[in-house]
Amino acid sequence: MRVLLIAPPGAGKGTQGTLIATHFGIPHIATGDLLRDHVARRTDLGRAVQHHLDRGGLVPDEVVLDMVAEAFAAAKAAGGGYVLDGVPRTLAQARATYEIAQRLDMAANVALHLQADDDEVMRRLLARAALEHRSDDTAEVIGRRLALYHEVTAPIVAWYGERGILVSVDAMRPAEQVGREVLAALEVMRSFVDHVPDAARRPIDLTGLGAAFGR
Ligand code: ADP
After folding, report:
1. Which of 58, 77, 86, 182 could anchor a disulfide with 31, C-beta 3.0 to 4.6 Å?
2. Would the CB of 59 count as within 6 Å of ligand 1?
3. Cβ of 52 less than 6 Å from ligand 1
4. Which of 77, 63, 74, 66 is nearest to 100 (CA)?
5. Contact 1, 26 (CB under 8 A)
């Protein structure tokens, strides 16, 4: 299984990414975690990117794409599956990630879009700030991360729709409910991926399910 996660900050990429990785026995590649680890260890890279993280801006593409290339090579050696969390954030990153993956014959089979509105993610991130003290979980920086998401990340969702690998899930519900739906959708996709070419598939939109069954 090869999954990309696309979601606004606070929608649950980390939580669902960990769940997917455990369920399918694949590596969880989270660029935010990798970058924060560099900052914590005060590596050269960490010192170079810290101000981008603190301000809620984007780290330069070559830094994250190098990380992706390295992590993909390791994932290939470990069996070829992955769940990628944090990349792509822009259309340029989406194209570059596709090329890197393609060269290794491991292009994603599913782009999982977790939908949550701004008020909900702001509430979650401010609650997390009280517990975790992440330097970018202040109201001002969260606002900037959200604006960036709407401006440069949200538009790439359509690109995955055209490629036939998009699955959209309503992430406004409790994490375990979202997780159950995510795993069920991915299990269904798993039976498809080896038999139906990406181009012959249609986007799958499960975001109405919450309302249909009464959240
Ligand atoms: P969130 O989605 O909650 O903002 P992440 O942990 O995914 O959190 O990312 C935290 C920060 O790491 C981002 O605000 C950004 O500064 C940096 N970052 C992570 N992934 C990328 C990326 N693909 N391109 C540029 N910067 C990134």
Report:
1. 86
2. yes
3. yes
4. 66
5. yes
Rounded CA-CA distance 77/5 in Å is 22
The count of other CB atoms within 10 Å of the CB of residue 3 is: 26
- Report the distance separating Cα 141 and Cα 55, nearest Å: 6
Q: Is the dihedral of CA 26, 29, 33, 34 positive or negative?
A: positive
Q: What are the backbone dihedrals phi and psi of residue 60, each rounded to the nearest 5 degrees, phi first?
A: -55, 145
Token pair for 56: 């809620």
* Both tokens assigned to 93: 């990153």
Tens of pLDDT along 75-112?
999 999 999 999 999 999 999 999 999 999 999 999 99
Look up residue 29 and give its DSSP letter. Answer: E
Nearest CA to ligand 1 atom 3: 9
Cα 36 to middle of ligand 1, angstroms: 9
Integer Cα distance of 72 and 190 in angstroms = 20
pLDDT in tens, 174-205: 999 999 999 999 998 888 777 767 667 777 88
Contacts 24+ apart (CB under 8 A), 36-39: 36/134
Cβ of 12 below 6 Å from ligand 1: no
